[in-house]
Amino acid sequence: MSERRVVVVLYTGALALDITGPMEVFETANRLLGSPGRPYLLDLVSADGPRVRTSSGVIVEASPLAAAEGPVDTLLVPGGWGLHSALRDRALVSWIRRAAARSRRVASVCGGSFLLAEAGLLDGRHATTHWAYTEAMAGRYPEVTVDAEPIFVWDGPFVTSAGVSTGIDMALALVEADHGAPLALEVARFLVLPLRRHGGQPQVSAVLDAQLADHPPIRAAQEWIMHNLDHRLPVAEIALRANMSPRNFSRVFRREVGATPGQYVERKRIARARELLETTDLAIAQIARRCGFAAPETFFRSFGRALGLTPRQYRQRFQLMSPSGPADRHHETDRSTA
Q1: Which of 114, 208, 227, 231 has most Cβ atoms within 10 angstroms of its Cβ?
Q2: C-alpha distance from residue 163 to each of 83, 152, 208, 211, 323 (Å)
Q3: Coil, strand, or helix at residue 20?
Q4: Ramachandran quadrant class, 230 (left: phi over 0; alpha: psi -120 to 50; beta: rest)
């Protein structure tokens, strides 16, 4: 198996998780592959070394930039609170431009896309960054098409990811491109990650879907929704669980959660469907019923709108398998027919 050299370029004030998140993905892939050598060779380099202080105070050891001469498989640029100073460092920006020219692909996490854009690497391409800075990036780099929605964007050899944890999603996508979906899913499971997030998933909904509201009645309604996704969930019925009128409930729910009750329910249905597609061999029509979709056609439309794939395409691409085969799938029967 050929070795792939991953070079992570650091600077003072870079975000530690932007660095360590993707690195743990690559290192876990190394361990799971268990082949001779190291499929991913990880190099950390910096002009601020040999000890680079991240934004959280964690010290990372790095080699000089000159140590990264020669061909590179993946060049990775993190973001962080030190980004403003890094953007003014013309030597660093110039080095990134030159290193990218000898790299098979170039990736960034969070604000790292600003450094790629500053180097002129994203001109004429689509890219993303943290949702809070997409407008600033679009204004500063008008030649770049900035997409505020996806958690990562792949355009040619350039892969840009959104805020912080999405660097892990991006790294999993890189592992999948190199070694296939079974290994990427095995890495995600080993790292005890939730369901892998498709690159087209919106940044904000990716955050909202994982949180419960602070307001106890709304939180109780959210928890009840999760236990009743296989039923019809009209707003009036959900509002009863919060002991509120439907109109007041809808208003408070949107304020607390950032989405209407209907939008929230659909996202939760899709999340449950993704889990079942990845981890069971249930028929797609059975999954549609189990997730509360009135008809398979409704399921197909909602799923395609959310992820840009049909349920069958999603299963083919992301179904949970071990490197040795589909031995870990759960064989279930449809409760409605059992």
Answers
A1: 114
A2: 14, 9, 14, 16, 30
A3: helix
A4: alpha
Contact (Cβ atoms closer than 8 angstroms) between residue 83 and residue 118: no
pLDDT tens figures, 265-292: 998 999 899 889 888 889 999 999 999 9
Question: Please, which residues bridge with residue 153 across strands?
Answer: 160
Amino acid residing at 279 = T
Structure tokens that stand for 227 in this block: 């236990």
Q: What are phi and psi of 51, to 5 degrees?
A: -120, 115
Element containing residue 152 per DSSP (H, E): strand 152-155
Q: How many residues are listed for the chain in this entry? A: 338
Phi, psi of 295 (to 5 degrees): -150, 150
Q: Which tokens in the block code for residue 53?
A: 């202080």
- In whole angstroms, what is the distance from residue 79 CA to residue 139 CA? 18
3-class SS string, 48-73: CCCEEECCCCCEEECECHHHHCCCEE
Question: What is the phi/psi pair of residue 161, to 5°?
Answer: -115, 165
DSSP class of 196? P
| Whether residue 50 has a cis bond before it, omega within 30° of 0 | yes
- What does the mean pLDDT of the chain come to? 87
Both structure tokens of 193: 């990650």
CB 61 within 8 A of CB 50: yes
* Among candidate residues 30, 19, 33, the one with its CA nearest the CA of residue 61: 19
CA of 259: how far to CAs of 138, 207, 209, 267, in Å? 26, 12, 10, 10
Residues 6+ apart with CB under 8 A from 227: none
Strand stretches in 162-258, DSSP E = none
pLDDT per residue as tens digits for the range 9-25: 999 999 999 999 999 99
